[in-house]
Amino acid sequence: MFATGQGRNPDATDAHSIALVGTRMAGLRPVVNDEQLALLRILVDRRRSLGEDHTRTVSPDGARKSLSAAQAKALLAGSDPVTRSARPDAGSPRS
């Protein structure tokens, strides 16, 4: 099927191609507004956004995705980690 992604937005040509396929194929399900799917998409987008925000907060200097061990060590040396025992939720079991 037609996938979104790859940094490319669907355009009028894509819509026309999909419409032609739809007119020539038998047995296709009709498109319906699925509220659960829409809600799930909103939640997934929000989760992705929170993850990106967390990454920016933890790595404000924009650390590269591929670091050598020495580079990672140097990057961590400048951070102020919070130990597990210092966290307010340290005594609570994970659910």
Task: Reconstruct the topology from this structure.
Elements: H1 12-24, H2 35-58, H3 69-77
Biggest beta-sheet profile: none
Question: Could you give the order of the helices and strands?
Answer: HHH
Strand proportion, as a percent range, falls in under 5%
**Count of alpha/pi helices:** 3
Roughly what is the average pLDDT, rounded to an integer? 76
User: Can you tell me the overall shape?
Assistant: elongated
From the N-terminal CA to the C-terminal CA, the straight-line distance is: 38 Å
- Please state the structural category: mainly alpha
Helical amount: 40-55%
Instruction: Report Rg.
Output: 23 Å
- Number-wise, the strands total 0
Unreliable residue stretches: none
Structural description of this entry:
This protein is mostly helical and 95 residues long. Helix content is 48%, strand content 0%. The chain has three helices and no strands. It is elongated, with a radius of gyration of 23 Å.
